[in-house]
Amino acid sequence: MPKITINGKEIEFEKGMTVLQACELADVEIPRFCYHEKLSIAGNCRMCLVELEKSPKPIASCAMPAAEGMNIKTNTTFVEKARKGVMEFLLANHPLDCPVCDQGGECDLQDQSLYYGVDKSRFVENKRDVKEKYMGPLIKTQMTRCIHCTRCVRFATEVAGVPEIGAIGRGENMEITTYLEKSMESELSANVIDLCPVGALTSKPYAFEARPWELKKTESVDVMDAVGSNIRVDTYNWEVKRILPRLNNEINEEWISDKTRYSCDGLLKQRLDVPYIKKNNKLQKSTWDEAINLLVDKIQSVQPNEIAGHIGDMINMENALSFKKFFKTLKSENLEFREKNFYINPDEKMNYIFNSSIAGIEDTDLILLVGTNPRHEASILNARIRKTFVQKKIPIFSIGNPGDLTYEYEIIGDSTEDIKKIVNKEHDFSQKLLSAKKPIIIIGESALELKSGGYIFEEFKRFLIKNNLINENWNGLNTLVQNASTVGLLDLKILQDKKEKSSSFFDDLKNRKFKLLYLLGSDNLEFQKNDEFIVYQGSHGDRGAEIADLILPSATYTEQNGLYENLEGRIQECKKASYPIGEALEDWKIFNQIIKKLGSKDYKVNFDELRKEVLETAPNFSSINELPKKSVIKTNNIETSFFSEKIFVRELDYYYTNSISRSSKTMSECRQIRQKIKKDGTNN
Amino acid sequence: MSVKKVYDKQPKEFKFSDENLKKVEEILKRYPKKNKKSAVMPLLYLAQRQNDNWIPLAAMKYIANYLAMPYISVYEVATFYTMYNLAPVGKHFIQVCTTTPCLLRGADKIVKLCKENISPNENEISKKGNCSWMEVECLGACVSAPMVQINDDYYEDLDEKSTKEILISLIKDKPLKPGSYRGRKNTSPEKISIINGEKHA
To answer: Which site among A168, A185, A404, A683 would you substitute to test the B interface, given the most B Cβ atoms closer than 10 Å to its Cβ?
Structure first.
């Protein structure tokens, strides 16, 4: 490996690194504004100047490729003077409004001017004035603070794939703006706030809410979709003030979606704080004792097989396990967690997870989307597909039309007939799929919901196995589930333990076989309410609570510890950042109370036992935060029936998918703007 | 120079004329097919020519769609270069060079005359509606400073008297001839002195 000398220390570096990266290897800190690991190199802030021996001028280390034998110095007076000069220019037009700036306390410019800047300004002229720009309901702008690093421009163009931000004018008059000041149409738009090294782009909902040093920071996991993005929850007293991404190159890199980031104001609204009982067709406040007594009476008045439970989209594994145990004591088997009756084969873990892994998308050479819109169903995963597309120009195909995905793809069919042709090698596409070394097939819930959902999944699986595309090194069969709880619940064998029965939960529900329906945080189940007694246990007064006869308040994902399994089958820990509101309790505690009232002696769990059991139950579990162990199946004997159907990609109301986002003011503003754009057609 | 403002009364539609479409094809041939967005500058210029010397937003959108570029990229280019006008200009568009050599030779007087005779502010159409003026950076004719560019022509070696004559002729819609107003041919030397027997300009 080539060698480079940095401050007299010789280190080895990899070919293709820049001087700045080599300096980082040598543990030498280089100040920078425009350089960012995940974006292209711009080299326009000049903050990273270093001295190169035999070069008369300082060099911009972020843009200079490191070469054998370079002698770099970063601690000389020459470098110090260069940095001071650059800093003085950057601050020439930067307002001194740190006391009223939301970035204060976590501002790169503030920190770096302290370490590398001059203590006073020689600039006596008027500072330039730039009008504020409108960038949508999420991004607050104060463009006088902008230092033109263009990180936001590069993010929008490269990562988000919506080239809508740009720099207009030139020289002193350069301004960063969106085209004609429209809001940015991306699910990842708010990441520019984190990228902005100064306070030019700050968070609109969080404006003037708190200072970073006042906040308690809890490292947690997101539950808005099944990706399981790593987040940091910042709380001030009880309130969740904001949610920020945490670096995890395996999953979300440095980005999170807007829904993950801004649903948090929904945690403060529409909350259920005390139990409610429906009396005279009106929900009235009640007490835990009264509520549980009523529930126990109801349970005892119906047959066990007339009790059914539905588990919602954001329930953690411990709570789900205790729910399952609770149903066991009730002797009922009618448990379900799917919102629509999509095909899933829970026998093997491989059948319901994203086997290629999110980071593995970067190794692929062909992607086939089957009835899925990853942009809305898993925005972060879509960003990874786009990254691979931009870097390697891989071909992407789709069956069904998902709309704009921020990258180019080819629609090769829209019906199950096309899939039949592909797996029978009668389609032009079959050859392409077979010639690919590491193809990825992503099957979405829209396809699995069809009558031939089973056919689609099992035949693709058979096809991949037959052609040795599922082996020890590569597994191209992927299911893209939409809810954070789905994979975890499948692991807990919520579906498997049911005895063979002729009718499914959905049929029974439709045929009004249930007398008591227990909704555990479940708001998206579509059915016609009849004379069932509905218990809703959850955190928000949303769709589930609307139809409930009895409401038991419980905690949200930021208010309790819990494990979630993301779509890759990676078990991650969501940590308690705040406390349940009012009299709300964690779900498992509520079940304990009910069971106690029911008079069952043998059953009382605590949380640690639940967690232990969850980890023991989960198949192929390796360790927390890691991918599950690989299992390779060599045969597929499952026979399914084929129906000729059209494959539609179900449109997801992106900003309104769960009870938290539906309660969030920010999300409904985003939704309104998105709908307006759709209606007016003023789309790029 | 300040950041250029987009005109508030924008036409709804823009399309290249048939004649210009032929030119566009000619222009596109100059660039590799995969890099056809390189043609954005000549196309913007063509649009400006077609649309009375200014570029409406509709034209930017049209060109962006034509070259499969994001709107913002075309917008960036159009706002970056000073020679693209984003608002209507007069039929006689006077660009006064005020960079150092011209300014030393009295460009400020020309600016003053423009303010008096055409409009008090830059980029404002005169009362009669046929002229507008603006200050620009070096037009590369320092040798015959001070000078102005009126539409496509250079008027050089100006002084207050000749400038006023030119401006009045423009207002009357009968423009005078371009070129030197001190009788120079091209940029030929005026006085020839003999130093040590050699001719010097």
So the answer is: A168
B3 touches chain A (CB under 8 A): yes
User: Considering CB atoms only, which of A163, A169, A180 is closest to B80?
Assistant: A169
The string of pLDDT tens digits covering residues A517-558 is 999 999 988 888 888 899 999 999 998 888 999 999 999 999
- The answer, for A499 touching chain B at a CB cutoff of 8 Å, is no
How far is the C-alpha of A674 from the C-alpha of A660, rounded, in Å? 19
Give me the residue from B70, B71, B76 closest to A167, CB to CB: B76
Question: Measured between alpha carbons, how far is A525 from A580 in angstroms, rounded to an integer?
Answer: 25
Q: Is B58 left (phi over 0), alpha (psi -120 to 50) or beta?
A: alpha
Distance from CA of B189 to the nearest CA of A (A): 37
- Cβ of A179 within 8 Å of Cβ of B70? The answer is yes
pLDDT at B85 over 60: yes
pLDDT band at A394 (very low <50, low <70, confident <90, very high): very high
Nearest CB to A168: which of B1, B57, B76? Answer: B76
Q: CB A166 to CB B72 under 8 A?
A: yes
- On the 0-12 / 13-18 / 19+ scale of CB atoms within 10 A, A622 is middle
* Contact assignment for A163 to B72 by CB distance below 8 Å: yes
Tally the residues of chain B.
Answer: 201
Q: Is B163 exposed, middle or buried (0-12, 13-18, 19+ CB in 10 A)?
A: buried
What pLDDT, on a 0 to 100 scale, did the predictor assign at position A605?
A: 79
pLDDT of residue A683: 46
Share of chain B above pLDDT 70, in %: 98
Report the mean per-residue pLDDT for chain A. Answer: 91
Residues contacting A491, CB < 8 A, separation 6+: A317, A349, A565, A569, A617, A618, A619
What is the set of domains in chain B, with CATH numbers? Answer: 11-80 (1.10.10.1590), 92-180 (3.40.30.10)
Residues B181/B174, Cβ–Cβ less than 8 Å: no
> What pLDDT score does A497 carry?
55
Subunit contact B73:A169, Cβ cutoff 8 A = no
The radius of gyration of chain B's CA atoms, rounded to the nearest angstrom, is 20
Query: Which one has a higher pLDDT value, B128 or B31?
Result: B31
Pairing of strands A396-399, A410-413: parallel
CB atoms within 10 A of CB A682: 11
How does pLDDT run across A614-645, given as a tens digit for each residue? 999 998 899 999 999 887 777 777 888 888 98
Looking at this predicted complex, what is its ipTM? 0.86
Residues 55-74 of B with CB under 8 A from A: 57, 70-73
Q: Which residues of B touch A93 (CB under 8 A)?
A: none
Tell me whether residues A166 and B80 touch, CB distance under 8 A. no
Q: What is the SS3 assignment for A464-494? A: HHHCCCECCCCECEEEECCCCCHHHHHHCCC
Distance separating alpha carbons of residues A223 and A241, to the nearest angstrom: 17
Q: Choose among B2, B3, B70: nearest Cβ to A168.
A: B3
